[in-house]
Design goal:
This protein is of the alpha/beta class. The chain has 16 helices and 16 strands. The strands form 2 sheets. Strands 5, 6, 7, 8, 9, 10, 11, 12 and 13 form a 9-stranded parallel β-sheet that branches. Strands 3-2-1-4-14-15-16 form a 7-stranded mixed β-sheet, with no helix packed on it. The chain binds guanine and zinc ion.
Length: 445
């Protein structure tokens, strides 16, 4: 695999992206930009133009002909836990039991820097093999786990937002830090990685129950001291969790308010779940410019609840979609978006293919303040581009052949496809699809 983008690269295929935000439940959305059989022109790893398929670029361009395939901006997974691919698909527990029974033991192994390094490599390759080129990631409490992710993402050219997990109570002692040591680790990681290449630091509060008020205050001070950094956490995921937070923080109006009081609710906050929010919380999120990372497969798997996406839209909140592996059951954004459709169907709502895909591309980029950089084929964006087979297998092929219009075709693709449809994953103009994903091995036995 070459690791340099050719200085001039042209990709041919069916280009689909968004020029704005599709409206809720509108199938004929004006924000959809579909350019069947076009060349996407890339110079020095950035998008410089688009032209029709029958106007081939000159001989000085390297040409990759993906005619008959779907080209999308690389997906952005706004909430996922790197160590949890080791315990994904663990049986039988709701959130708080699940954390203690499966999650914390898996995360303890990452104290060993060699485990952190190998785990980061496996995780980042798995993201790429799912067509995800940018992610907002929880590693573990160990500084080495964040270091390994930043280094691994840099080696692959991916855009990564992460930071060491903050956790100084209500977790096994081997996974607890302390305020002063955690602050030193965060400052060191910020100074070494934030804004270096495509990396950005996120002040990473696991969730309110595992941080003391002193640690939350320190985290808020870090956000203020380093204004370009992100903040990521969980909020209002599970009813027992919400009740526990109410008991731990009696002075706060709500779970969300615990974060707001500590200076952790701002435009660069990524709040996973947000199922059990009230109207005041929604207004506070809207006013802050923070986003909710909706994680439907996780919410179904742990039985956490059904996120009211339409209420969030009505409140004017940015909503992105995230896998939340390992409570989520797949790194595939298509599978996750298909689950999001089903969650909304249970509420009598309909999630269009456009709203779904936008939330995992341009919408997520916009909520992260990165719309000029990722999430679309706008000229000037980095060329993070995934190439997808429109159909894989007899059923999908038949459905694809019978689709009557573009929304029907894309909705069927979204519902029936997964990482097995991925043909190439360009990161800044370099195909980084791991070899094992590109050429599946036969399984015997
Ligand atoms: N809340 C606190 N930690 C976690 C986690 O690892 N996964 C999920 N889904 N929720 C959490
Ligand atoms: Zn999570």
């Amino acid at each position: 695999m070459t690791t340099m983008s050719p200085s001039k690269l042209a990709l041919r295929g069916d280009l689909l992206d968004f020029t704005g935000t599709p409206e809720w439940a509108v199938v004929d959305a004006a924000a959809v930009r579909f350019r069947p059989d076009h060349w996407l022109l890339i110079e020095g790893g950035r998008i410089t133009g688009v032209q029709p398929g029958d106007q081939a670029p000159g001989a000085d361009w390297v040409q990759h002909d993906h005619r008959g395939r779907l080209l999308l901006p690389g997906f952005i997974d706004t909430h996922v836990h790197s160590p949890q691919i080791d315990m994904i698909a663990s049986y039988g527990a709701e959130l708080l039991d699940w954390l203690h029974t499966y999650t914390f033991p898996a995360e303890m192994r990452f104290a060993d820097p060699a485990v952190s390094q190998a785990g980061a490599a496996r995780f980042l390759d798995a993201l790429l093999a799912s067509g995800t080129t940018s992610a907002v990631v929880f590693p573990t409490v160990h500084k080495a786990s964040a270091d390994a992710l930043f280094a691994g993402a840099s080696a692959r050219g991916m855009r990564l937002v992460t930071g060491k997990v903050l956790m100084d109570r209500h977790a096994p002692p081997a996974l607890c830090d302390d305020v002063a040591g955690a602050e030193r680790d965060c400052v060191d990681l910020i100074e070494r990685w934030h804004g270096v290449g495509r990396n950005a630091y996120a002040v990473t509060v696991r969730f309110a129950p595992t941080s003391t008020p002193a640690q939350l205050a320190m985290a808020g001070q870090l956000c203020a001291a380093y204004p370009g950094t992100y903040m990521q956490t969980h909020v209002a995921e599970n009813r027992d969790e919400v009740e526990w937070v109410r008991q731990l923080f009696p002075q706060a109006r709500s779970y969300l308010d615990v974060y707001a009081r500590a200076g952790l609710l701002h435009a660069r906050s990524v709040l996973a779940h947000g199922i059990w929010l009230d109207a005041n919380d929604r207004a506070a999120i809207r006013d802050s410019g923070a986003q909710v990372a909706h994680s439907p497969s996780s919410n179904l798997f742990l039985g956490s609840g059904l996120f009211d996406w339409h209420a969030a839209v009505q409140a004017g909140i940015h909503v992105s979609v995230a896998t939340d592996v390992g409570a989520g059951t797949s790194l595939s954004m298509q599978r996750t978006l298909a689950d999001a459709y089903k969650v909304q169907a249970l509420a009598g709502q309909r999630l269009t293919a456009w709203k779904a895909l936008h939330s995992a591309t341009r919408g997520a980029a916009q909520a992260l303040g990165l719309a000029g950089e990722i999430g679309s084929f706008d000229v000037g964006c980095t060329a993070d581009v995934c190439v997808w087979h429109w159909a894989s297998g007899a059923v999908a092929e038949r459905r694809h052949a019978l689709a009557r219009d573009l929304h029907e075709r894309v909705f069927a693709w979204l519902t029936l496809s997964d990482e097995r449809n991925l043909a190439a994953a360009y990161v800044a103009g370099v195909d980084r699809l791991p070899a094992a994903a590109a050429a599946p091995q036969e399984v015997s036995g």
